[in-house]
Automatic annotation (TrEMBL):
InterPro entries: Cas12f1-like_TNB (IPR010095), RNA-guided_DNA_endo/Transpos (IPR051399). Signal peptide: none annotated. Keywords: DNA-binding. Transmembrane segments: none annotated. This is Transposase. Residues 283-346 form the Cas12f1-like TNB domain.
Length: 359
């Protein structure tokens, strides 16, 4: 088994290096846009090589730009040229043979005074870098350097081998709003993750803040508060997914099962006051985080049919609708928390192939 992940490192380029990166990043996307435009005009992939691309870029970067342009053209061709993406965000990409990573810096070829020169760029050090150094021992892919909020970020694709964990239990995980996640193992061990009330409070706070900024017509501040909200939500998903995987390790779980949350926003029933939270919370991202964290340590993740998982009685299979947060079976008397019922049924629900990004 193999798992491909993206490692993100914050860079600390000096003033000279920033100017080089800015110039190369803008040139890189211009080259791609020009090549794609030319390929669309002739309705065929380009046969150009690095010698035919006139741009102040190292030959290795030119070669990568040609590959990326062909990829963009292929996607456009599949849509009958109805959609022709135009890259706007400056970025620069190097293949795995044209950069090196050490403990404190990344060395890449940059275009200086008409020549390609390998220049080391300092990496901002933090505690996460120790774990990244271990992951770097895997098979490295492309290096992507881009600017986000005036900060330079290096994204490195790494493929690492994973071995199946020696667990013997299945675990079902039910995702929701009031309780972000509930996990139940085959042995009956149960744990609730996250704080739904705190999440709702935070969402209301950000909405109120955006509304007041909107009245004041502070557009830039609205974008800033939106980015802050998205970072907070993403951090919550990271914390919950890490806690779920740790719980799985503790209970010798070899397979985690999740619902395939297809079209959840159209099919889920919720109160009017929770409707905005339902439409703004990324269930798919949380499921994705659980999957990649689990796969890294050899725990498999499977997706099941979500039909009636919250209604079916785990004891007698009779369908009942839960009253508030408590589930009670009218047939056999089984009673427990409603979300726990969902997680218990997910363990034995029929498998579905793939997962939907529509949630």
């Amino acid at each position: 088994m193999e798992q491909t992940i993206t490692i993100k490192l914050k860079l600390q380029p000096n003033r000279f290096q920033k100017k080089l990166l800015e110039k190369m990043s803008k040139t890189y996307i211009c080259v791609i846009n020009d090549l794609v435009s030319e390929m669309v005009e002739y309705k065929q992939p380009t046969k150009k090589t690095t010698k035919n691309v006139v741009a102040p870029l190292p030959s290795a970067v030119k070669n990568q730009a040609i590959k990326d342009a062909k990829s963009v053209f292929t996607k456009s061709k599949k849509t009958g040229y109805a959609m022709i993406p135009i890259l706007k965000k400056p970025v620069c990409i190097w293949n795995n043979q044209n950069y090196s990573v050490s403990e404190r810096e990344i060395s890449v070829p940059l275009f200086v005074d008409g020549r390609s020169k390998r220049i080391p760029i300092r990496v901002q050090w933090n505690e996460k870098n120790n774990r990244f150094q271990e992951l770097m021992k895997g098979k490295r892919g492309t290096l992507r350097i881009t600017q986000k909020s005036h900060k330079w970020i290096a994204q490195i694709s790494v493929t690492i081998p994973t071995k199946p964990i020696n667990g013997h239990q299945l675990m079902g995980v039910d995702l929701g709003l009031k309780v972000p996640a509930v996990a139940v193992t085959e042995g009956g061990q149960t744990k609730f993750f996250g704080n739904g009330r705190m999440n709702k409070f935070k969402k209301r706070y950000f909405r109120k803040k955006r509304k007041s900024l909107g009245k004041a017509k502070k557009i830039k501040a609205i974008r800033t508060i939106h980015d802050k909200e998205q970072r907070w939500m993403k951090n919550q998903d990271h914390q919950i997914s890490r806690a779920i995987v740790d719980f799985a390790i503790k209970n010798d779980v070899s397979v985690i099962r999740l619902e395939k949350l297809k079209n959840i926003r159209q099919t889920a029933r919720t109160s009017r006051k929770n409707n905005q939270n339902l439409h703004s919370w990324s269930f798919y991202r949380l499921a994705n985080f659980i999957e990649y964290k689990a796969n890294l340590i050899g725990i498999a993740v499977e997706y099941v049919d979500p039909a009636y998982t919250s209604q079916k009685c785990p004891s007698c299979s009779e369908r009942n609708k839960a009253a508030d947060r408590q589930y009670h079976c009218k047939n056999c008397g089984f009673s427990t928390h409603r979300d726990r019922v969902g997680a218990m049924n997910i363990i034995h629900a029929p498998l579905m192939h793939g997962k939907s990004a529509s949630a």
